Amino acid sequence: MRLLLVFAVVVAAAAAQINQRRPGQTNNRVHNNQRPHNQQPQNQQQPPQKADSQKGTLLSLPEPQLCASRPKQWNFNGHNYFFSWDNEGEGFYELAGETQGRKVNWLEARNECRRRCMDAVSMETEAENNMIFQFIQDRNLSYIWTSGRLCDFTGCSERKDLHPINIYGWFWSNTNTKMAPTNSTPPGWAAQPWSPAGHTGGPQPDNAEYDINQTSESCLGVLNNIYKDGIKWHDIACYHKKPFVCEDSDALLDYVKGTNPTIIL
Ligand SMILES: *[C@@H]1O[C@H](CO)[C@@H](O)[C@H](O)[C@H]1NC(C)=O
Ligand SMILES: *[C@@H]1O[C@H](CO)[C@@H](O)[C@H](O)[C@H]1NC(C)=O
């Protein structure tokens, strides 16, 4: 009983540590061109998952057995990936066939991946983005969820480097990496991944659903020519249901390895 309790506390502490990493952290470390986050008082740090937990839905913790047996459908730069409709198991397809697969909201997509030490895909480089766009094209998929998220929740307003958020406030929640400003082609990329067109006819992100009924478009999906715009990034309200691509999460794999030394992942 006592041992179990200690274990539970350790798990909770490690999980809290993972979740307390914030957008911009990796970017700050690598490029050193942002205001260092350690100039801010520790207690102002908020996990990027705050908005979701406010709605009563929490991020899932990794499950060692599922991590060890996670689908490794393809590999890119040392990470495993899989597409939800191509894999059996709870949370994946319900019926075989491209047009019949199960669709879930953005947080459910992340959680299905996270239980397997993965997370919804994050395209930090143009090469990785091209790989995902090619997959969508080859499979003629209409859309997928990614881990992209707008920092529009508690803790974000204190981060001056994230404002205005429609330009500077987007990050990959898989790796807590900031995206390039949304209003121009990312440095070093050949093309702007954000769509030039959406519901309002203007460039993405446009938070269009907010104008209709105050539902923020806080999550990033890749849409395939829905607006006659080719395969492009769109800001989308997070409740919409889509299939998803999972990518290995280094943080979750390290965490499970650390707590299960003999596990083979
Ligand atoms: C691709 O998907 C679109 C939309 O679902 C459909 O209209 C089109 O016929 C499909 N193309 C092929 C080659 O399957
Ligand atoms: C907001 O509008 C969209 C688009 O018309 C609709 O799909 C969605 O259900 C609406 N949401 C609410 C909360 O009314």
UniProtKB/TrEMBL annotation:
Signal peptide: 1-16
Coiled-coil zones: none
Composition bias, Low complexity: 27-49
Keyword Secreted: no
Region (Disordered) residue spans: 20-56, 182-209
Domain of life: Eukaryota
Domain C-type lectin: 93-247
Keyword Signal: yes
InterPro entries on file: C-type_lectin-like, C-type_lectin_CS
UniProt keywords, alphabetically: Signal
PANTHER family from the UniProt entry: HL04814P, RE43931P-RELATED
Name the record gives this protein: Putative C-type lectin-like 5
Organism: Homarus americanus
Gene: Clec-L5
